[in-house]
Amino acid sequence: MSFNIALSGINAINTELNAISNNIANANTYGFKSSRANFAAMYAGSQAMGTEASSLTQSIDVGGGILTTGRSLDASIQGRGFFVTRDTSGAEVYTRVGIFSVDKDGYLADSFGRRVQGYAALANSTALGAFGDLRVPTGQIPAQASTTLDYVGNLSADWTVPTVTPFDRTDPQSFNGSMVSVVYDSLGVQHSVTQYFVKSGTNQVTVHYSSEGVTLPTTTVLDFNTSGQLTSPTGAVPLALGTPTGAAALTINVNYAGTTQSAGEATTTTNATNGYAAGTYLGLQLAEDGGVMAQYSNGEKQRIGTIAVATFPSEGALIQVSDTAWTTSSGSGSPLYSTPGIGMAGTLTPGSLEQSNVDMTQQLVNLMTSQRNYQANSKVIAAENEMMQSLMQAV
User: Fold this and answer.
1) Could you tell me where in the chain the CATH 2.60.98.20 domains are found?
2) What is the SS3 assignment for 174?
3) 291 exposed, middle or buried (CB, 10 Å; 0-12, 13-18, 19+)?
4) What superfamily does domain 148-273 belong to in CATH?
5) pTM reported for the whole predicted model
6) What is the mean pLDDT of each run of 10 residues along the chain (395 residues)?
7) How many CB atoms neighbour CB 69 within 10 A?
8) Which of 78, 178, 241, 264 has the most C-beta neighbours closer than 10 Å?
9) H-type helices in the chain, by residue range?
10) Hey, which residues does 56 pair with through a beta bridge?
């Protein structure tokens, strides 16, 4: 019986050594989670039968170190969850390794060619679109005409009413200050819009406009209270800029909210318009909220989708497979899909990778312990063998 008991110990220790050696071999594997062999005593009734490696426990909940790579399509998850990928057979595979790129067919894929799963972007909406493969549009984005001009500044209370009247954009003596803005028409062609600020009365400034060297008929009167706060207009002022050649009629809404009148120099803190020229696709970048952002030559970024993160009721019951990944089991439960930082899903750190969580020092200690236990069980078998030989010689 002692032969069998010692043999069960050796078999269990072999299983433990397999786990330890696998941990050590993957000490530099991105996203790897170490495992531990658990021993359990075996009995037949009251008769001791030795031991067995009853289970392997994965340390999925223990995070690895974070390696900053600076690569725009690398990402690590801080906390719970896995990236969701789909292999060529259509099966979902889950991984902590966020090394992504665009494959030859234009899909976002991981380093093993599995397509990354996420939510498509919806035009003019922050809602999540359909769940599935994330495809990257590689063409141009069309131009977008400007519709707003936001101006915020301080129009000096020290200004005096100009002595030269009426306003003449070619005569600097007829206005107190000016500001040039750039707008785009529907073809993406740039046009300049100049605002001329004229002190026209107590706590009052009149704004004249010109575009492409032509004075526009529209004027705006800015009124301020005794504290220097803008009281009117209370909304945006429509400014018709005409119809550029070959483009649609161009009108922008000028917003002066936040503009003040205080003593001192005139300053500008905001001079911003929307709209842009056509742009050519340059590449992708990941955002902290999981957004997959396409970058274009005109400086624009557009969200093409959001990477999904899957959590499970029992992550420790997931089955490890090749390429540092996991699949579901009956004990893990079904995946719960979310986006980074929402619900139980961990947050995303772009430009970094999660390192292996293997503690090499602990693994070497475990290795020495296993070696000692293996030798002890071998001694039991050797002693039993000598006793059997002595018995046979005595017969």
Assistant:
1) 148-273
2) helix
3) buried
4) Flagellar hook protein FlgE (2.60.98.20)
5) 0.78
6) 80 92 96 94 88 91 94 96 95 97 94 96 89 90 95 97 94 96 96 97 97 94 97 96 94 97 96 94 93 93 95 94 95 95 94 96 94 86 76 70
7) 16
8) 241
9) 2-25, 360-394
10) 37
